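B., you asked whether I could sanity-check this one before it goes into the benchmark set. Here's the sequence:
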Amino acid sequence: MRLLFLSNFYPPHELGGMEQLTAEVAMRLQARGHQVAVLTSRAGVKSADSAEEGVIRSLFLEADIHYYSMRAFFLARRAQESANARALRQTIETVRPDVFVVWNMWNLSRRLPYLAEQWLPGRVAYYIASTWPMDADAHTEYWRLPAARRLTEALKRPLRALALARLRHEDYPPRLAFAHTACVSRYMRDKLVAAQAIPATADVLYNGIDPAPFLSAPDASAESQERPLRLLYFGSLAPIKGVHVAVEALGLLAQQGLAGRVELTILGRGHPDYVAGLHAQVAELNLQDRVRFQEWIARADVPAMLMNYDVFLFTSTGPEAMARTVMEAMAAGLLVIGSEVGGQVEMLVNGENALTFAAGDAARLADHVRYLLDAPAQRHKLAQAGQQTVLQTFTLNRMVDNIETWLGSITQ
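And here's what the prediction gave me:
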């Protein structure tokens, strides 16, 4: 098959696991003899960057990933939409794909898959790992919401009606057909179907990881009573990720006199305001000696990094489709303490292969950590069960098998 992937970002310019997964799936399919190209944004690209075979980095995002520009909406957006359409048309004519695969859409114009549906009727497939089909696009969301600052709102208010009227006049966002759709979890499919955002015929194809690089992680259970229990949060730093819940839980343990028995590493990057808030929270709770912040690391370094920890914290306060960082931690032999949100409930079973807590419940999270301080054998037992869960259900090979079969059915 000739496949053309559409993704907002693509390694090495990425925000997290889904962009990395795009590359892993694309490379696996290519290794199986398929011709694969990727059309993605120009985010992070410098003019001096060398060309990459099969990767076209030419698309404009709807907005800056951190700060929306009112000026760009009125002065640059239409030109950027036109440039995107030309890039899409040129890429389709060059690649001549059998299937156009819409992968990551956050902050990409909905006009792109709409045009693909017109130009490649019946050959557009959507692999969905977020609620984007039922969410407002970046433009609509920004103009509908009040500004956080009074001065900005004073500037924004008189322009709001004009901006929203312009989007309505352009029929934006366009309605998509979603003729061929697969979701990353049952939760995601059921939520989108209930909202009538996608057809009830949508499939469920779990994502996965290559467990091989992670399986050499040593068993550190015997050491857990001789040194602090090493907790890790690894991922994007944003309010919905709930990292502040982990810090709050550590503060509760400190109040109980247990701070010296645990340490937390927060590894990732995100919105500057939220990151600054986390640092302030750590200082307010006097946890500077127990919480360490570390910048993002290369994907190749993740398996070795995980070997240095005992417990992985999945703290999201909002629904997530199916987090790959959880799979990686489980494959590496870490026990996962995770919030009961979204598709994670299809992976994490409290007391069987993980420990779970209601989203935002810092007290329950602290209770789980306190329990593990004196139960290294139970931690090891749950971690082993978690590793088996990944090996049996959430491997990259299984995922690519299913993706290949699904895309192949579209060409028949």
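One thing to flag: The longest strand covers residues 35-41. Otherwise nothing jumped out at me.
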